[in-house]
């Protein structure tokens, strides 16, 4: 029997690009009940799996409105996924992508850094507290759980660090400080951020996002510079294949099987990690960015993902 790709998600439209997953069956996490003997029931029907199946988890680790949409919370969703995972593992030797064991660590940037801290791509960082010993400036102080650029400030000295740190901590709880990595590209007078789209240790696509400010997101990048910066980045990647390969292999070694987006900054001959996210396909790029990339061709991209999942 050929393997089936079995998708477990909290909802289809969860910002992870599920449209690109070549799944055969989908089960919705909120509709699953776990029997005491480990049998999984979806909407009243028993879930049948075989050892050759490929199980793919997809849930949104950092978008609060996605968990609200299923009347849940991140800790509740996390627990449910762990329970489902355990039930599956107790019965089947399936291949599992985006194993929920790391779900919370990936949604929390401080935990992500803690998990990956032995890797050279992780900048110097510390948990922010009132009496943190920190003397690297400039630095960025940021909520551990935040996305979209809010609750994050660049600080040039101790006063700025503590004024911002205390404010963010009061509003958002867990906060961290990290060295500021200068992402300036001199020749284009802009900042940049490199997003690698990776399955396991295979780079399936990448985008270099130019910005007028240091804090860059897909929607707010400087679109006029995308082509130029893409060429600049391609050249860098070609002449630094070894470091790119090592970076994705090292991350794979810790995070395990899965589809991830890595937000990185290129500095001289090195890559520095800003953030890890779960992502199968970047639909925002597909919609907004007018440049030839594998991501733009959904059906070809699905084929690539299928090869990666069945490899
Ligand atoms: N340590 C850092 N030094 C310089 N720029 C950073 C640093 N961390 C993040 N950034 C910038 O801020 C942007 C957003 O940060 P990121 O960690 O990806 O969080 P999110 O995308 O959830 O807002 C990154 O794309 C990068 O441009
Ligand atoms: Mg990011």
Overview of the molecule:
Strands 2-1-6-7 form a four-stranded parallel sheet, with no helix packed on it. Strands 8-11-9-10 form a four-stranded antiparallel sheet, sandwiched between helices. Strands 13-12-14-15 form a four-stranded antiparallel sheet. The chain folds into three domains: 5-100, no CATH class; 124-179, ATP-grasp fold, A domain (Dna Ligase, domain 1); 191-310, D-amino Acid Aminotransferase, Chain A, domain 1. Strand 3 and strand 4 (40-42) form a beta hairpin. The relative contact order is 0.14. The chain is 32% helix and 25% strand. It is globular, with a radius of gyration of 20 Å. With 311 residues, the chain is α+β, with helices and mostly antiparallel strands. The protein has helices spanning 64-69, 74-91, 103-107, 109-116, 158-172, 226-239, 241-255, 283-288, 298-310; strands at 5-9, 25-28, 32-34, 40-42, 45-46, 54-58, 95-97, 125-127, 139-143, 152-155, 175-179, 191-199, 202-211, 259-267, 270-278. Bound molecules: adenosine-5'-diphosphate and magnesium ion. The site of adenosine-5'-diphosphate has 18 residues, from strand 14 and strand 15.
């Amino acid at each position: 029997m050929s393997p089936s790709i079995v998708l477990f998600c909290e909802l289809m439209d969860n910002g992870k690009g599920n449209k690109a997953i070549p799944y055969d069956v989908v089960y919705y996490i909120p509709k699953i009940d776990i029997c005491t003997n480990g049998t999984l029931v979806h909407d009243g029907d028993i879930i049948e799996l075989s050892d050759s199946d490929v199980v793919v988890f997809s849930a949104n680790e950092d978008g609060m409105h996605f968990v609200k949409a299923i009347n849940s919370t991140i800790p509740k969703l996390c627990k449910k996924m762990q329970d489902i995972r355990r039930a599956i593992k107790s019965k089947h030797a399936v291949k599992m992508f985006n194993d929920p064991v790391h779900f919370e660590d990936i949604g929390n940037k401080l935990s992500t850094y803690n998990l990956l801290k032995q890797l050279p791509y992780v900048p110097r960082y510390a948990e922010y507290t009132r009496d943190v010993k920190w003397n690297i400036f400039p630095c960025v102080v940021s909520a551990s759980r935040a996305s979209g650029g809010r609750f994050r400030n660049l600080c040039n000295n101790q006063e700025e660090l503590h004024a911002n740190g205390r404010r963010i901590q009061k509003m958002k709880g867990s906060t961290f400080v990290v060295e500021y990595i200068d992402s300036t590209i001199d020749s284009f007078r802009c900042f940049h951020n490199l997003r690698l789209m990776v399955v396991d240790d295979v780079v399936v696509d990448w985008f270099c996002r130019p910005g007028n400010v240091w804090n860059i997101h897909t929607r707010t990048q400087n679109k006029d510079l995308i082509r130029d910066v893409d060429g600049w980045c391609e050249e860098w990647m070609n002449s630094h294949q070894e470091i790119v390969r090592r970076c994705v292999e090292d991350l794979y070694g810790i995070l395990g099987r899965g589809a991830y987006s890595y937000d990185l900054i290129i500095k001289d001959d090195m890559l520095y990690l800003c953030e890890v996210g779960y992502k199968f396909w970047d639909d925002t790029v597909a919609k907004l960015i007018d440049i030839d990339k594998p991501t733009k061709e959904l059906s070809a991209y699905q084929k690539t993902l299928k090869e990666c999942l069945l490899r």
